[in-house]
What does this fold into?
Amino acid sequence: MRGIVHDAPNINGFANVQLAAGLARALGIDAVFVDRDTVMAAIGEGVAGAAKGVRDYVYVTISTGIGGGLVIGGRLLRGVTNIAGEIGHLPVALEGPRCGCGSYGCVESLAAGRFLAEAYGVDDAARVFAAAAAGEPKAVAIIARAEAALGNLAIILVNGLNPSLIVIGGSVAEHEPAHTIEPMRRAIATRAFRVAADAVRLVPPGLGRDVGMLGAVISVRERLAGRAEWFL
Ligand SMILES: [Zn+2]
It folds into this structure.
């Protein structure tokens, strides 16, 4: 259903919330659009960011959680219930920690900031990266596992979708590119299909760290102008 948040794995109890109707009432306005932040980011990058002019690209966020948006042949791929692009919940391990979505072995449960902090018993993923940089063995192992999970995700995206661009945003990717974007590049270079690997670039968002917010503004502007989700 439109305007309803059915599930938000990283916000306890935030399920089946009629967000659009509630916001419209509270703000006294008619039109409220509710969408996923990663979809907004993908649209923003396609209209005015690093993916401008690109027909086949993936937006990935590596932050508290992991998610994404897919643009195939110049069109945003939503699927039938707007779940397409929930790439953080692709399972990349045969056995792995329980994920907030109810599954296990999801890339999010192995590499997202929230889960890195939980695995190390701290409240901030930055402390895990700092401990790993200092050589603390448990932190080193957690980060190595996260890098492996992100590498597998990268190969799934490249072999499964054959994009020419992967835009990687989110606070963990922004602060720790050597432990996120670089291992994804290495995995693609060594394990993905050769012609697909040679055709893809991995870059940070052209719209910067506010890509989700800017994407939301751009998305609403595009909708109100009557333009569909075709970028080319
Ligand atoms: Zn999951």
